[in-house]
Design goal:
By secondary structure, this protein is of the alpha/beta class. It has 2 domains: 397 residues, Rossmann fold, CATH 3.40.50; 96 residues, GMP Synthetase, Chain A, domain 3 (2-Layer Sandwich). The chain is built from 13 helices and 24 strands. The protein has a 9-stranded mixed sheet. Strands 4-3-5-6 form a 4-stranded parallel sheet, covered by helices on one side. Helix 2 crosses helix 3 and helix 5 packs across helix 6.
Length: 498
């Protein structure tokens, strides 16, 4: 293999394998990989992919569940100079076809139980659980020993969540992701002695790039799980096999509502990371009260920045529970008005970024790229406030702010007020068309126990100024979400706005 600068995604693993070859890198079900074994498997998998006739720069879709094979495939694409395209394994039909076709994937690595969902004519290779799968072919393949990718090469098309429009493929380079890994390591206090459990989908940037890859960089032993199953997670924590866990607020809410949450011995959990969507402050307060020694980290960002942009560390929560923290090592951020001018601290505006972690733009979408990267900054679409100490608080998505009677209302404040009622399991606040108010503040609630609309309206009026309180409460069995757990408010507006 020709030498290079080594600022590559697969180089992260190679260095750990040289440093601690015999240490266990990954455990998945009944399989265990040392760092040396994992590095060797990646080189063999890279050779398998290139043996399929793929050429450097080709896009390779990944449509599979969590597994060691999924991780090996990602790293193999990186080592072979291919561009990995992670696809939500829950996608079907037109949504699935759109990403496969828009990315121009020459091959899709798929778990066998998912292959039939792919569009007709798409070339596939099983990831695992088949005689000719990528994992099964490693033993009979010589390791790849060709040219290294360059740090400026694309390594992944990271499709955005698509909460307001069709997903866009953020073009991530090796250099951008390696910078993001170092930001995560320093801001989240990741160390080789941690015992992380990775239960969220690996196709999602947070689990892969904020936790699994940075933990491989520091040489930790990583337990890859199929899904965030509460019974399994509690068992692993009690058995001292997991002491570090990332989950979106939806999962933490589910764990906190479990009947055995108050009785299980969870004292072995040392680090709790939350992110991907806004954590309701009342829920966070209940978690901290139950587990006072547990260190909570709020992780915030978005796909286009790798995705970690800001972190609120455990010792920073007091007095700023609703904050998403300060910028990480390689991120610069400011808050601007609609003209792109910086606003004073304490004034709401759009948060914008400059960073080596940022994507190169959107795959084959020059107009969207120009719009997002105008004025030399990346425009996030998030409405935020910065304080004098550099802490940011996300108020809302710019497109989710409600205009009621000419007054702009942030949905998060209304949601936090509703979460203080014991009968509210989940809540999403949206604006619906209204002749009098332009948009009427409307709460969509998943109830926990018996509660009426009048009760919740009265409760909200006690907590909020009258113009912010909901005009209506709608009850639903569940809220629509995307792959990262973010509530799809556009679906709620479409559903109830007619």
């Amino acid at each position: 293999m020709t030498s290079g600068h080594g600022s590559t995604v697969d180089g992260v693993l190679r260095r750990s394998a040289h440093r601690t070859p015999a240490r266990v890198a990954v455990e998945y079900r009944d399989r265990t990989w040392t760092y040396q074994e994992l590095d060797d498997a990646v080189s063999r998998a890279a050779a398998v992919l290139l043996g399929e006739g793929l050429e450097r720069g080709d896009r390779v879709g990944a449509y599979g569940h969590n597994s060691d094979a999924y991780l090996i495939a990602f790293l193999a694409c990186a080592r072979a100079g291919l561009v990995h395209v992670p696809v939500n394994q829950n996608l079907t039909g037109d949504d699935l076809a759109y990403i496969v076709e828009q990315s121009g994937s020459a091959l899709v690595l798929a778990d066998p139980d998912l292959q039939d969902r792919l569009p007709a004519g798409v070339r596939t290779l099983p990831l695992r659980d088949a005689d000719a799968s990528l994992l099964a072919r490693l033993a009979g393949t010589e390791p790849y020993d060709g040219p290294e990718p360059r740090s400026e090469d694309l390594v992944q098309l990271l499709y955005t969540s698509g909460t307001t429009a069709l997903p866009k493929g953020a073009m991530m380079t090796h250099r951008a992701l390696v910078h993001e890994y170092l930001s995560a390591i320093t801001a989240l206090d990741l160390s080789a002695g941690d015992r992380p459990g990775h239960s969220l989908p690996l196709y999602h940037s947070a689990q892969m790039h904020v936790f699994l890859m940075p933990y491989l960089a520091v040489g930790a032993t990583n337990l890859v799980l199929d899904a965030p199953d509460g019974d399994q997670l509690f068992d692993l924590i009690e058995a001292d096999r997991v002491d570090s866990l990332f989950a979106p607020p939806t999962v933490w809410i589910g764990l906190a509502h479990r009947p055995d949450f108050a009785t299980r011995d969870l004292s072995g959990l040392r680090k709790a990371y939350y992110g991907a969507s806004i954590m309701p402050v009342p829920v966070l307060e209940r978690l901290r009260e139950r587990l006072p020694k547990l260190g909570f980290y709020n992780c915030f960002g978005q796909s286009e920045i790798g995705p970690l942009a800001t972190v609120l560390a455990p010792d920073e929560h007091k007095g700023r529970m609703d904050s998403c923290g300060r910028t990480v090592l390689f991120v610069d951020a400011r808050v601007v008005d609609e003209n792109g001018e910086a606003v004073p601290d304490g004034t709401p505006g759009e948060i914008v970024y400059r960073s080596p972690q940022l994507c190169e733009g959107y795959w084959e979408k020059p107009e969207e790229t120009a719009e997002a990267f105008r004025d030399g900054w990346f425009h996030s679409g998030d409405l935020a406030v910065r304080d004098a100490h550099g802490y940011f608080t996300i108020v809302d998505r710019v497109k989710d702010v409600i205009n009621s009677g000419g007054v702009l209302i942030a949905s998060r404040q209304v949601e936090d007020a509703l979460y203080t009622h014991e009968a509210v399991a989940e809540a999403a606040v949206i604006g619906l068309p209204d002749e009098k108010w332009i948009e009427a503040v409307t709460a969509v609630v998943v109830p926990r126990g018996e509660v009426t609309e009048d009760e919740l309206l009265a409760h909200a009026r006690e907590k909020l100024a009258s113009f912010k309180a909901p005009k209506r409460v709608l009850f639903v069995a569940e809220l629509p979400r995307n792959a990262s757990g973010k509530i799809l408010k556009r679906e709620l507006r479409d559903r109830f706005g007619t």
